[in-house]
Design the sequence.
């Protein structure tokens, strides 16, 4: 039973509200840099927009979704009222205050450093303080997830922690540890320079610390989507989860392998030696394992649903699936985008191929396809599934929901496929305009126009999504059937101790991070000339 | 399902586990192949990520040492290879146009004088970050003469979108004739 609906709704609504605004910025960027518009007279407007779009979509939006969904899971899966509701509200308000603190200097053009910070460029201190507040707010959630799970375990000794909660806590611990990299960078490097206490900064160290956060943050974004794959979709389409144990192993593997791989973002960097680049490349290959396990388990679960509905044949069962069910549609689209995005990711992780597309428009295409595509479409599905339970009102717009999901899928393909192509041609990213009269660039103009069209389709889809949620608040009251998560084919009574808690996995996570990051960090800190002058941007000082 | 045989949940659980284990082996195989490919190409073609972790003081680049203005651009080495030195700064590369020979081993040595920049050369696999405090070194070779663009590919401030340079690849003879006459090669008069 959901007893704190207002708390959960507040998180989801704030998330979708900022998402609705940031997507408009994204589409404006697509348009303004395209051949459809003349060169922007003030390029800073573009970088302000990129900073705001990235900060909102990368930090604020997914964090709020993970938090709201996490609180919902705690009450629905553990069947106990959330412990620490006041703290949860405190975390929520920290995020509100942090977001406002960060957005003001960005809007004023005092902090156009992009959400990836890029020291030694230093912007206005309030931008970084705002981001820190958002992270601190989310850490309250991390603590609450651990506290709630442990309280349940004490009350239910020997019983298996429900899969949804196990995965949810895995996601929260992953976030707590991966955020440490960027937190160290912000607190010990950037903020002292932004506040004027120091005038130099170790830029190489900043890049290494940020890479610690930058890759695993993707798995934090991914967790709600994977939780939906395992615990919502099979139930929603009338099937069973193929394996509860394999699901737990997949989530535990994310915890262990998500962190010690971030240096694959730095293959082309001069501050890390070849050896550790190789090590991180190998570990990146390993992190594909939990996703490959997930694809297998979910496809098997979907097949079970199809066969229960009378599906026959090696592939004929696909026809028996409930394709009119938005959850089924969202899952299928998510898997297609995950497939393409994952294939692109394998190219990024091998340093030989990475050299062709590093930091080009390909990368923008890659993470939009994975995050904004495969992951965010599942955020929509989660909202569609939870909303009747949060509002106590009927969710009747099935047609509209299907249209919205179709548009999101088509829009994302139209947006990201041309980006991948342009990247192979060597088109750099994050540019306020391109000189389309240059013969070397002219051929890429059509890809930029396509991304404007793709973006427009996505904006329509996003607006449709928000309309559907708003319409639900006005729909007739109903008493929805009690919420349930997917049942496994073989529901576990008890699971091995290692798969019912996180001691082992968190230990491995920390140990592997220290092993894979310890030497590069130590080397950079002791390097001569590593401290370089901070370059202040925006405000006159 | 036939009604004659009694349904045994343990039996079906075993079947499910067996199929899973097979898939897990396939996954291990896929990962192993990927890693093997990285190792093979890394060793066989010596395609390792460029890095020697070599540092330099960015505040004195322009007054002394390897990256003073007169030493930038293409230089012919004793062994007939060519070294290209360049500096990135907000919002340009020095030199703005680089002349290099085709079919010749080339070593790039580049750094940044201020913030983090990047460079790629279109239609090639040349791609590197340029960071203040560090020298990026990588070896390459151009197959044929032609013109390439060389944009900065990392956001470096408000003028980032205007930071483009050019690379002109000329045939070996032309290049070495030019290089014999002058240290400063120009894209304008090949």
Sequence:
């Amino acid at each position: 039973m959901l007893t704190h609906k207002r708390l959960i709704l507040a998180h989801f609504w704030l998330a979708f509200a900022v998402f609705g605004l940031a997507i408009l910025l994204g589409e404006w960027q697509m348009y303004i840099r395209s051949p459809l518009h003349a060169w922007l007279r003030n390029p800073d407007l573009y970088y302000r927009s990129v900073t705001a779009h990235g900060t909102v979509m990368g930090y604020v939006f997914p964090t709020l979704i993970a938090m709201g969904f996490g609180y919902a899971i705690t009450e629905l899966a553990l069947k106990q009222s959330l412990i620490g509701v006041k703290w949860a509200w405190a975390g929520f308000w920290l995020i509100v205050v942090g977001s406002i603190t960060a957005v003001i200097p960005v809007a004023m053009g005092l902090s156009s450093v992009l959400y990836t910070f890029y020291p030694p460029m230093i912007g206005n201190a309030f931008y970084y303080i705002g981001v820190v507040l958002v992270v601190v707010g989310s850490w309250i959630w991390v603590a609450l997830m651990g506290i709630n799970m442990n309280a349940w375990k004490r009350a239910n000794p020997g019983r298996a922690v429900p899969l949804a909660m196990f995965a949810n806590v895995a996601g929260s611990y992953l976030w707590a540890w991966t955020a440490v990299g960027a937190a160290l960078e912000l607190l010990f490097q950037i903020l002292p320079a932004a506040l004027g206490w120091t005038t130099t900064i170790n830029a190489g160290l900043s890049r290494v610390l940020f890479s610690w956060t930058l890759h695993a943050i993707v798995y934090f974004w991914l967790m709600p989507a994977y939780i939906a794959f395992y615990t919502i979709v099979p139930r929603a389409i009338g099937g069973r989860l193929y394996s509860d144990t394999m699901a737990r192993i997949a989530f535990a593997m994310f915890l262990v392998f998500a962190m010690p791989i971030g240096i694959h973002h730095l293959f082309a960097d001069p501050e890390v030696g070849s050896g550790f680049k190789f090590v991180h490349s190998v570990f990146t290959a390993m992190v594909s394992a939990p996703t490959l396990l997930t694809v297998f388990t979910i496809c098997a679960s979907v097949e079970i649903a199809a066969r229960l509905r009378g599906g026959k044949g090696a592939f004929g069962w696909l026809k028996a699936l409930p394709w009119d069910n938005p959850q089924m549609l969202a899952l299928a689209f998510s898997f297609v985008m995950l497939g393409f995005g994952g294939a692109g990711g394998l190219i990024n992780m091998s340093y030989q191929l990475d050299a062709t597309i590093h930091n080009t428009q390909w990368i923008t295409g890659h993470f939009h396809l994975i995050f904004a595509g495969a992951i965010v479409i599942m955020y929509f599905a989660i909202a569609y599934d939870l909303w009747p339970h949060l509002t106590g009102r009927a969710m009747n717009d099935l047609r509209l929901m299907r249209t919205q999901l179709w548009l999101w899928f088509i829009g994302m393909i139209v947006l990201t496929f041309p980006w991948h192509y342009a990247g192979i041609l060597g088109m750099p990213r994050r540019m306020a305009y391109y000189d389309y009269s240059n013969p070397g660039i002219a051929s890429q103009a059509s890809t930029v126009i396509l991304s404007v069209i793709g973006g427009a389709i996505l904006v329509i889809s996003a607006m449709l999504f928000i309309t559907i949620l708003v319409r639900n608040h006005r729909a007739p009251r109903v008493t929805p059937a009690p919420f349930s998560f997917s049942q496994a084919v073989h529901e576990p009574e008890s699971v091995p101790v290692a798969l019912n808690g996180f001691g082992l996995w968190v230990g491995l996570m920390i140990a592997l991070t220290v092993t894979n990051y310890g030497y590069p960090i130590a080397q950079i800190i002791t390097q001569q000339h590593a401290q370089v002058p901070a370059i202040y941007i925006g405000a006159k000082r | 399902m036939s009604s004659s045989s009694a349904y045994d949940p343990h039996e079906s659980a075993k079947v499910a586990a067996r199929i899973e284990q097979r898939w897990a082996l396939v996954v291990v195989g896929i990962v192993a192949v990927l890693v093997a490919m990285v190792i093979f190409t890394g060793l066989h073609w010596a395609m390792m990520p460029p890095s020697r972790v070599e540092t330099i003081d960015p505040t004195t680049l322009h007054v002394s040492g390897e990256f003073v203005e007169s030493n930038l651009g293409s230089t012919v080495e004793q062994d007939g290879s060519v070294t290209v030195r360049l500096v990135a700064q907000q919002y340009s590369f020095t030199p703005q146009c680089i002349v290099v020979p085709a079919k010749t081993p080339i070593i790039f040595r580049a750094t940044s004088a201020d913030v983090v920049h990047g460079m790629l050369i279109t239609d090639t696999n040349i791609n590197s970050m340029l960071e203040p405090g560090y020298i990026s070194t990588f070896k390459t070779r151009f197959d044929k003469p032609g013109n390439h663009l060389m944009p900065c590919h990392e956001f470096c401030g408000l003028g980032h979108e205007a930071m483009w340079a050019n690379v002109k690849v000329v045939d070996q003879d032309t290049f070495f004739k030019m290089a014999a006459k002058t240290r400063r090669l120009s894209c304008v008069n090949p």
Remarks:
- Chain B has two domains: 1-48, 54-181.
- The radius of gyration of chain B is 26 Å.
- The domain at 54-181 of chain B is CATH 2.60.40.420 (Immunoglobulin-like).
